[in-house]
Amino acid sequence: MKRTTLSLIAGTAALAAVTGFAAVSKPDASGTHSAEAAAQLPVERTSLLCPAPSLSDIAETSYTSFTPVTKGTDGGGKAELRSATEESTQAPDGSKDGKGGKSGKKKAPKSLVTPKTPGTPATGDSSGSDTPALVGTAEGKFAPGWTVQETTEIAAGTGRGLQGVNCTVPDTEFWFPGASTDAARTDYVHLTNPDDGPAVVDIELYGKDGAIKSTVGEGITVQPHSSEPVLLSTLAAARETNLTVHVSVRSGRVGAAVQALDDKLGGDWLAASADPAGDLVLPGIPKDATSVRLIAFTPGDADADLKVRLASPGGQITPAGNETLHVKSGMTTAADLGDVTRGEAGSLILSPSGRSVPVVAALRVVRGKGANQETAFIPATAPVGTRATSADNSAKGTTLSLTAPTGAAKVKVTASAGSEGGQPVSKTYTIKSGTTQNIDAPVPSGLKGTYALTVEPLDGAPVYAARTLSATENGVPGFTIQTLPDDRGTVAVPQADQDLSILQR
User: Fold this and answer.
1) Beta 79-83 vs 134-139: how paired, if at all?
2) What values do phi and psi take at 500, rounded to 5?
3) What tens digit of pLDDT does each residue of 256-304 get?
């Protein structure tokens, strides 16, 4: 083989390891490609974006950075979280002050979190309303499976309670069913641009009667290394209790998340739903939920008819009065499920009752009663896949929910070392087919500080997971829920003999 061909193979593998893109694999006997024998290599670089946490002066925000131990990484690398905004002080004439002084930029702000060795969480904190959005990068041994959790406590006012979000990778399209412009709600779409060039973004809103006309949401420019919070109520005059927000990027890429704040019901972050699909899983409804609302939307040209099932500890059941859901094309549909879990762990399973039509969906979950109510959201999510991690856990306030909708599964859960001390512990669990289990998750021995939980399916059907973090203050049951899709810590790359067979064809 020619040297250039060997170089191409090496370059393809390196690119996949850095970017996470899948690579080609060798054709089987029929001439089609199969990735079954592709090697799994750790990614070498990844980025995460954290939205600005709050506009409240009394907000207290903590950040937890964690990288699980991954085989095949070398000893080098670094990770850091910095402000998304980098202000240049260089004048047009090239000088710093425009008068011939030294040119340059302001010194980059200190990283809010100093990462520790993979396997040990690192924490940082901030307070007040001026905490910026953060751009994070991780390289080498810190990149595979890197997870950052942003958790904010607000003692009073709109959105009071506990708000949490997993910092996300930049992308070009996001769906957010469950947003609102109701009079009691103040919802923002946070757009963060990590790159050197501007990003141009369109925001579309869909209510119960279809698309909401607005030109304000078209062609929004997000400057390089900056973040823009867009108040949804400024994009349209009509008030809508249940909205689906579609964020699409014309050029560049952004991180996007919706901050949903309620005058009476607290608030939380609404993460993007999984990509539109015919079958959806929304895991981890708290067993003491007093109100659950399902919001769904289909972006296609056909209506969707869905079977609604609740995966409980004893198996799948049909919620009384909500056996099916009809979702009209291009219109947001909502169904109030009440206290659907009735004191047991639960996950919602949506599947087509006839023709399969792509749908996005989310749940708004309320805990508490009267003046002591709080809200969180559960978007439809992808399965755990190879591995998923939840950072920022406490010994008493953490609930890990696992569901296996289509078959039994065996899962290993590892509690990391504590951020300030403690030894990691692992346990293995079997999740019965069609059930949801709130497992008795392991806690690090001798725990000090917070810790991470890493979920790794060992055998069986796909597993879906969610983590609930609770912290009751002044009688208000503050809580936040994060789903746990695959952490993209490894990527499939072709082995040399597979590439040889491709190039020899």
Assistant:
1) antiparallel
2) -60, -45
3) 999 999 999 999 999 999 999 999 999 999 999 999 999 999 999 999 9
